[in-house]
Amino acid sequence: MNAIDPPVWTIENSKDLYGFERWGNDYFGVSAKGNVTARTLHAEVELIAIVKGMLERDLQMPVLLRIENILDAQIHRLNTTFRKAIETLGYKGEYRGVYPIKVNQQAQVVEEIAAFGARYKHGFEVGSKPEIIVALSTLEEPGSIIICNGYKDQEFIDLGLSAIKLGFVCVFVVETPTEIPIIIERSRFMNVEPIIGVRVKTTVSISGHWNSTSGDRSVFGLTAIQLVDLIDTLKAENMLHCLQLLHCHLGSQIPNIQDIRSGITEVCQLYAGLVKEGAPLKFIDLGGGLAVDYTGWGSNDGQSRNYSLNEYCEDIVDTLKNTFDDYDIPHPTIVTESGRATIAYSSILIFNILDTTTFEAAKLPPPHADEHDLITNMRDIYPNLSEARLQECYNDAHFYRNEARELFKRGHLDLRTRSVAENMFLDLLQKIADIAEGMARVPADLEGLKLSLADIYYGNFSLFQSLPDTWAIDQLFPIAPIHRLHEEPMRKAVIADITCDSDGKIDKFVGETEVATVLPLHALREGEEYYVGVFLVGAYQETLGDLHNLFGDTNVVSVRINRDGTYDFVKEMHGDTISDVLSYVEYHPKEMQLRHRNTAERAVREGRITIKDRQQIIKLFSDSMNGYTYYEKED
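Structure (tokenized):
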């Protein structure tokens, strides 16, 4: 290679840049063609090939792609890793996983979890009557656990008691003291012995986004005082033998393994205390908390985690074993409610880029004798561009740009001269930003300069519908183009959605070691689509989205990757039509079409349109009502 030639960009550079191997949990890679792949143990498939198959099936962008194999693999990993830790450490109990339906209530997802988890008797956590109905209609394996959390009225409890009759291990977790009388009364009425659990508050407060769900101020769970009252009540009713499970919720998305160890240690003491009181406990439910490393940083940052799945399982089993051995207590069945870690990896939001806006200068005109003094003054900034005078150059550029705008407002500067001034200002800022990027200490005014000059790539999706946590809590998701990764991405961009809301943009991205304010992307090519994927979106995003701007649910596709590298479209669901979303907000599509037809008919009577025009207008309205809410490109 010639010494002056730039280094050749490789696929390995793209893999490092976008971090697939840091956050992908071995599920994603890049093919030799530069296309992102979804991996299984036996094969991998290019996402761009799946997109082509979607388009052939008239499933337009944006699409939520679910990879069934990944969901299957996550359930397998969770169960087998716990089993391995139990065997290695000599723990005498077993492990039983449950999936919290609230994390993603979509029927396809819940049905897949029930099917893939049947071999492990993987159960569900439910927090409402609709959710327990979902569990009862989906689980088939007798002995599967259903954990009933949340407020429970008579009907909720009756449903749970019927589940026990059907052979499920349905546990009523007492969240507040007021639930106990209802459980006792209904169990006696239905002549079914209940399985009672109790949720306790721990004093440990965890770090991360969701630390308010832990500690003394957590909303649900009994205090030590209430716990003793519960024991006395059950003893008085001769029902202490029904108390079989101790439940705690250490927190969600816990990034630090030390918080997990500390919380479990306290829970073990509560468990031992209940056993000493005579409760024949059989289960210890540690709730959720297993984090997803969205950033791939392997740290205790709230969007990462500083432990592996192996370490998580081994630390739990080891802590429980050592504590219970010290108290000579039989080892209980370990239950965890991992939702985020179960479902996040399997879903990818894919959308196309519709357009871009760039903030860079066009070719500058050469100096000429009649040039305005203001333009000449701006040209004089260029020789001074250096690290030592960078702040001064930045200040001067702003001064003359503002002066040009003020003169234009007063009528003392023509439009063409103002355009030259604006163009030169952009050129100066780009050069200032390039110099600042290499400085050890960047002046405060220049720290956000790259972001202010970044391209805007307009994605065909709604942030509020498909990625609500990005807007609400600054959640980071890995984002990358799904093709062209053999090319160097030369543009620096932020991503805007197609809503008419200034908050509908993504300007924080997963960097190699810290949050980045721009995402490297490729320049668009005329006549060629450019596809971007947002990864790890399976948890919460599908169920939290609203109808902002009346953008509805996206198209959804589930695929199954075969051992030979082929794949099957297992399920597909077309997204909401305009008619669908209007009905969600209490419009009546048939009445709307009738009123529109009447308006068109009146226009015919008044001579504004012909009957042929009327027919075309009504057909356009009707076809649109049945169309996709997102941007559709014509064939």
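The CA atoms of residues 204 and 215 lie 5 Å apart. The radius of gyration is 30 Å.
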